[in-house]
Amino acid sequence: MRAEPMEHDMRDFSLFFEECERGPRLNELSGFFAATAAGRSGNPITQPQVDRRLLGNDKALDRFISLHEQRRGPFDQHYHASIPYRLEEECRLGHAILRYGQDMSEPLNLYSLGTAEGTMARTISELAEGHVESLSCSPNVENHQSFMAYGDPPHAAFFHGPFHRLRRDLLRSRRDLAKFASGFDVILEDTTFQMYSPNRPDQIEFVSQHLKDDGLFLFVEKFKNAEIDEYQRRELQKDHGFKARFFDPIEIMAKKAKVLTVMNRNEVTLAAMSDAVKRCFRHCYVTWNSGNFCTLVASNSLSNIERFMSGLIKPAIPTEYVYETLPLLLVNDEEKK
To answer: What domain of life does the native source organism fall in (predicted)?
Structure first.
């Protein structure tokens, strides 16, 4: 049974907060993230560009891609060059969120945690012209500086800090965040949890405090595989079939040794993710797959999931990178009320 907001308020998350403060994202990996966000390292040889052949013809999508391209920062370039067709997936999700918000009587509140410069959320808010109020967050001042480099947008905000420091009392007390105190309609976690710990149950429960009862929680994560050889095969495909277009082989190996071995310890399997998600949500689908990466959408409202998924265009990725039959039903608990 999903807890009501007041029950969330009563829970003591102090041990969870301590766990987050000890996480690699704020400690041994902090230097990597700071240097990459500042553009001092991790720059691809060529900037990744959207393969429009995979996305079809849609004027709204074209506008999203064009503005997104103008707003990208240094970390965006590194990130989108590192995961096969993640850039196309970001545009696909952004387009779908815009469509989802069109049918709402009030502005849609969007929270994007861990998405570096907040490019996706900012792009959505700029195009929505007041119909989407968005909040992004990052511990790195370099990401905040990249966000502000294009001016202070009226409908997109940025919290400089890690996700676990954005708490309900802070949303209520800060004037620039007060408009989000009533909760979010959509929350996107973008490869953030895996940088802190494998504790998905507490991570999801803590963040879902900010979600409205019928809201959508989107997850983009890298998942373990019960078959280690299969996991490694997909990693080799990613490194040699995609990343090699953008990075020198020596740099690929250096990142694997310095960053990925740390991050991999905090990944979970899809089965473990399903168990964590069902503690808070009645329904969950996998809507995108790229090797060991997946996008999930979870909610207590099946109708809202279906409405969101109806606005998703076909996944923009060559079939050789796809290992799941999509959409894949991960959680369906009609009895949970």
So the answer is: Bacteria
